[in-house]
Design brief:
Structural class: alpha+beta
Protein name: Basal-body rod modification protein FlgD
Helix content: 10-25%
Function: Required for flagellar hook formation. May act as a scaffolding protein.
GO biological process, one term: bacterial-type flagellum organization
Largest sheet: 5 strands, antiparallel
Number of strands: 13
CATH class of the largest domain: Mainly Beta
Low-confidence stretches: 10-25
CATH architecture of the largest domain: Sandwich
Order of helices and strands: EHHEEEEEEEEEEEE
Distance between the termini: 33 Å
Shape: elongated
Radius of gyration: 30 Å
Keywords: Bacterial flagellum biogenesis, Cell projection, Cilium, Flagellum
Mean pLDDT: 79
InterPro entries: FlgD, FlgD/Vpr_Ig-like
Number of helices: 2
Number of domains: 2
Length: 228
């Protein structure tokens, strides 16, 4: 089995949103406020049939129902506002990651300053581990044996292919880890990417951090890695 945790998202681009504001006139209103409601009730009481008056308790019940509805509507509006504020706050927090080196769940990253860095975790000890690096077209450009102990292992690639070619910074490169135990059974695990955040996109519901030509979700960040 190949240990691989997909993380690549669409490229970060600048977007411009346009909002349209509509104005509703008094003639188009479909609701009334509490003051208007009370005025209508008083008017109705003053003009009711004196020989067949409306039950007072019914009016009180109507007033209670309306008050309850108005309160629920106000609470709903307030909760919606709070939700929008929290979403905006969460997205804006991504801006604080600019220039920071983060570790995030995923398998695809870019070469930065002449190297690309990942980590892979084995859930049990393996007999053999092979680490493959694939380019954007899925071609294996580098392979070597990896550490077999249970737990987390860092893996840094200097951008040199198996044929000796030095690749430039940028591009998309994916790690795949093939791990088997002594009986030839697959060993489970997952991968992470370790890279510097070079861009932040907060235009969608989920903030996306750019790491070179690749990207990760803000929610997938596991840690900020201290500079060596």
């Amino acid at each position: 089995m190949t240990i691989s945790t997909v993380n690549y998202y669409s490229d970060i681009t600048s977007t411009t949103s346009t909002s349209t504001t509509s104005t509703t006139s008094d003639d188009d209103r479909t609701s009334i406020d509490s003051d208007e409601f009370l005025m209508l009730m008083v008017e109705q009481l003053q003009n009711q049939n004196p020989t067949d008056p409306t039950d007072t308790s019914e009016y009180i019940s109507q007033m209670v129902d309306y008050a309850s509805y108005e309160t629920q509507s106000e609470i709903s509006d307030q909760l919606s506002s709070i939700t929008d504020t929290l979403a905006s706050l969460m997205n804006s927090q991504g801006l604080g990651y600019l220039g920071q080196t983060v570790e995030a769940v995923g398998n695809t990253t870019s070469i930065q300053d002449g190297e690309a860095e990942w980590s892979y975790t084995l859930e049990s000890e393996a007999e053999s581990v092979t680490v493959n690096i694939l380019d954007e077209d899925g071609n294996t450009v580098f392979s070597e044996t990896g550490e077999t102990d249970e737990g987390s292992h860092s893996f840094t690639w200097d951008g040199v292919t198996s044929s000796g070619e030095q690749l430039e910074d940028g591009g998309l490169y994916t790690i795949e880890v093939e791990a088997q135990d002594a009986d030839g059974n697959d060993v489970s695990g997952y991968t992470t990417v370790i890279a510097e955040v070079t861009a932040v996109d907060t235009t969608s519901d989920e903030a996306v951090l750019g790491i070179g030509d690749s990207s990760v979700l803000l929610d997938d960040v596991l840690a900020v890695v201290a500079a060596q």
